[in-house]
Specification:
The complex is a heterodimer of chains A (207) and B (204).
Chain A (H helix, E strand, L loop, with lengths): L3 H8 L15 H6 L4 H24 L9 H23 L1 H7 L10 H9 L6 H31 L1 E2 L2 E2 L3 H5 L12 H17 L7
Helix pairs in contact in A: 1-7, 3-4, 3-6, 3-7, 4-5, 7-9
Chain B lengths: L1 H12 L10 H7 L3 H30 L20 H23 L1 H7 L2 H4 L4 H13 L4 H29 L11 H15 L8
The chains are: A mainly alpha (207), B mainly alpha (204).
Chain lengths: 207, 204
């Protein structure tokens, strides 16, 4: 079921070819929704679903798309999928939809989608493209979750809204680091993750 | 006066990059030297000024719940707001194409200097994000929307030129190897973001 190319497409993006850390795609939404763990997970799942299905659809019709209007075709496919996800979220989890506000809509312009469609789905068969979409979505979700974990833990002392840092710590004078909640710390956290990732994978370092 | 406040607010306080992280991908990829990043900034500002009033008119007279009332009473209950995303992105993509053709025809030198950045603007999240924020904030007129677009664009330009200037200087410093390139750029942007937060206290 999993040939070599499919396996590479699925597992590569998890670390060696991670969309956020290595390809530097999809940064915008990655940073804005990571102040808390829960919206980060919802965002990760939505992006995974959308990348997988847009890759699949574009790959199915790749031979019929004229080359010079392909960007508009891709945008329309992606926009339709995003509207579906947006409507589902509004119907079943209105609070979360409010919390993510415009960032669900902005998945349309998330560079991971366009990047993977251009680089992979236009040149490969549907099944590997589908797996590539899932792989990249999960690679993106992992980074989101790691960043959100540190920001919520250090910033509000909670995980999923439940307090994890014992009250005794606060009594001894420990205080939440309010800076972690603010947007700039998301960038610095991602910067540190890149630092760690590249010191593990020496061949990715820039000269 | 209201409009002037909105203009200044959208440049400094609600800066597209440091407050909302929009247009980050091209922001990080293109900020290697001041000249090209300035060109991209101008292109983004221009597209915002052109597309925002267009999207405003579309939203006001076609998409909002009850917006089609001008066609007659029987259209008053039509609600097309779920189509907003697809309409906005279609307007942005087609305007990009149009502007590209116009610039190529009338000013080949500007076209040559902007090069690949013009088509890339279609997928710049700052432009779509601005349209969505405009919809959320419910501005009073198309003029206000234009002012908001101009302010956001100038704020974006300011940010990318600032980062590019720092990165040019950074070429002379000794950065730990794994942090070189994109890693240090992230941290720099974070620090610039913290600096920009000092504007938050200003009430306009």
């Amino acid at each position: 079921m999993l040939s070599k190319i499919s396996k590479e497409a699925l597992l590569g993006p998890l670390s060696r070819n991670n969309p956020v850390l290595v390809q530097i795609l999809g940064i915008c939404s990655c940073l804005a929704v990571t102040a808390k763990l829960e919206p980060a997970i919802v965002m990760g799942v939505s992006v995974t679903a959308i990348t997988a299905f847009s890759n699949l659809i574009i790959s199915l019709i790749r031979n019929t798309i004229p080359n010079n209007i392909r960007i508009i075709v891709q945008l329309v496919v992606v926009a339709a999928l995003v509207i579906i996800v947006d409507q589902i979220l509004k119907a079943y989890n209105y609070e979360m939809s409010k919390a993510l506000s415009v960032f669900i809509g902005l998945i349309i312009t998330n560079c991971i989608l366009m990047g993977r469609l251009e680089a992979f789905a236009l040149a490969n068969k549907p099944w590997p493209s589908f797996l590539d979409g899932i792989g990249n979505g999960i690679g993106y979700a992992i980074i989101l979750i790691v960043v959100a974990f540190f920001r919520e833990l250090l910033g509000s002392g909670t995980l999923f809204g439940l307090q994890v840092i014992p009250q005794a710590f606060y009594d001894m004078g420990y205080a939440n680091n309010g800076l972690m909640i603010l947007p700039p710390m998301a960038l610095i956290t991602v910067g540190c993750i890149i630092w760690w990732h590249r010191s593990k994978n020496k061949d990715l370092q820039e000269q | 006066m209201e409009d002037l406040n909105l203009f200044i607010k959208s440049i400094f306080i609600d800066n597209m990059i440091f407050a909302y992280f929009l247009g980050m991908c091209s922001f990080l990829a293109v900020s290697k030297n001041v000249k090209t990043s300035f060109g991209l900034g101008i292109a983004v500002t221009f597209m915002l000024v052109v597309t925002l009033p267009l999207n405003y008119v579309l939203d006001k007279y076609l998409l909002q719940p009850g917006a089609m009332r001008w066609l007659g009473e029987e259209f008053a209950s039509v609600d097309l707001s779920f189509l907003a995303l697809i309409m906005f992105i279609a307007v942005i993509a087609s305007m990009t194409q149009l502007v590209e053709m116009a610039v190529e025809k009338f000013s080949p030198s500007l076209y040559a200097s902007l090069g690949i950045f013009l088509p890339l603007i279609a997928v710049n999240c700052a432009i779509l994000g601005c349209a969505l924020f405009m919809q959320q904030r419910d501005f009073g007129s198309a003029w206000t929307a234009t002012v908001y677009g101009a302010g956001s664009g100038i704020g974006w330009t300011l940010a990318i030129v600032g980062l590019a200037a720092i990165r040019e200087k950074l070429a002379y410093s000794n950065i730990p190897k794994p942090l070189r390139g994109i890693g240090i750029t992230f941290i720099l942007t974070g620090l610039m973001g913290i600096a920009f937060m000092s504007f938050l206290g200003i009430k306009l």
